[in-house]
Description:
The protein is built from 5 helices and no strands. With 180 residues, it is mostly helical. Helix 3 packs antiparallel against helix 4 (93-123) and helix 4 (93-123) packs antiparallel against helix 5 (132-163). The protein is elongated, with a radius of gyration of 20 Å. It starts with a helix and ends in a 17-residue tail after the last helix.
Amino acid sequence: MFIDETVLSCSLSIVAVFFVVLFVTGSLPITFLVVLAVLLVDLFLIALIHYWDLTFNNVVVVNLVIAIGLAVDYSAHIAHTFLTIKAPKDLSNSEKRIFKARKAISGMGSSVFHGGFSTFLAIIALAGARSYIFVVFFRLWFGIIVFGMANGFLLLPIILSFIGPIGEPLEDESAGKKTN
Length: 180
């Protein structure tokens, strides 16, 4: 029953993330990539729970669900910026993707980094805590920040540089002509 509730809560959170990111970006490929990055953060957290010998309980489950919402922030801003960047027309499609990925990181990267760093500063006070709840909270939020930023700064831009949408509208030759 406990596992079922965890899967249901995480699934509903992922569905909500999917629709919100789809609404904001208007791009199905970008939405799938952001959702992938978010899912990977939770997968990495589950591995972290195992390696840090944390007990799978209510406190851990709440943090796993919260992680879905927090991890969106690290990836969605980079992905949205990738969509809005216009690449020079003289580049090949591969070069356009690389150009857009670099510009997305340089344009939005500092804001995402400051958000992650300020979140880290907010939880660093819990690093020396002895209470189980605070230990779990610190460890999982530390994992959320590290994995979320790694997916937002490394994984997502690399994937976008290979398969990201170029986003150039199709040019219709008759669109520029006047008809009488």
